[in-house]
Amino acid sequence: MAVEDIYYDVAAVIRELRIKKGMSQQELGEAVGYKGASTLASFENGRMRIPMHIFLALCRALDADPVQMWADIIKSYNEGQEKGFSACGSN
Fold first, then answer.
1. Which tens digit of pLDDT belongs to each residue from 18-62?
2. What is the fold of 5-88?
3. Minimal CB count within 10 Å: which of 8, 28, 38, 53?
4. Residue 62 burial (CB < 10 Å; 0-12/13-18/19+)?
5. How far, CA to CA in Å, does 16 sit from each of 5, 34, 37, 58, 82?
């Protein structure tokens, strides 16, 4: 698992929370100050990295605790790292 994979994990969590909350990309984008859905779509598709200030705004809009979200993402990332090392015989 590459370091860049964590960005996909962040994007996946944001997308999952958005869908659970019943929000469109347009609605969430507007909630954090974007005029349309294209930037949020780029975040969710991994074409753009989410800046920290936008991550925090997304958490607020989604009623999510950013600290807990990062803890979950890092745990998932670390588990993937361990699996990757084991698969390579480094563990």
1. 999 999 999 999 999 999 899 999 999 888 899 999 999 999 999
2. 434 Repressor (Amino-terminal Domain) (1.10.260)
3. 53
4. buried
5. 17, 19, 16, 12, 24
